[in-house]
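Researcher: Let's try something more involved. This one mixes different molecule types, so please make sure each is placed in the same coordinate frame as the others.
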Amino acid sequence: MDYYDIALQGCGVDKGLESALGFKKVFLAGRDVALTGKKGNFSGAIATGSDKPVLEEAARSGARALIIEGMRTDRSLIDIMAKRNTVLCIPMSAITSKEGMERSRAIFMARGLFSSARRRRLHVGFVSLAGSREGLCSAMQLIEFAKLVGADEQYAAYSISEVNRAIANGDED
Amino acid sequence: MAMKTKRRYLLVECATAIEERGRAQFERGLFKALLEQMGVLHYQSANPKMVGFVDAHRFVLRASLEGHKEMALALAMIKNLEGAETAFYTLKSSGTIKALMKEGKK
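Model: All components are placed in one shared frame. Result:
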């Protein structure tokens, strides 16, 4: 199975590190796929933010995936995403950037968001969204992160393989 | 007869170079950070041990079969070691050290 990750442009990943980490490709947000948090053209992009109206608009106007900052579960937003087949993206950086109790809470929030999304049969992509080399992680670690959030072994592998590729390439499954 | 504990070996890459003279201090810092991430109960179940250093960036850790995956995740959570920014990537896991060392030298 080929694994894919999505990181930020300028994270410093090269071909050698990419394959050492166990990925076929690390897509770069900003180069391979658009990443936007502002109102405008959401079509085909990964939309990120914590503002519900903006995220709803992004889902309605054809964003490929949404990153919900703060990871607060919102049923109406999940419903819109389910209708539009928008993928939910959970970045590992949202957990690793925090320390102690804050990190523990972020894991709890991610678990709630993941289970709510999967209940509505939404696909969930797990990505590193690393901004630097220190933020990157291996495919094995990303799979374990997905399992920590509540995915089973099979879905974790599927997510890092098929879902992440679909987010970056815009393929339908 | 006592049951043999099943172990896994992990090939880990450190984002920053590990100086040969500072390896003992690095090891202490790493296990302290792992303990912090895993908690006492999970740490003792994983029972991590340093097997050896492959080069300035790569080293091999040994862990129990049931705790090795959790340890890989704990390594991903370590972003700071003794005040310096760093990261640990678990590249490969194997049941034999020979296969892992071979991979590490590639």
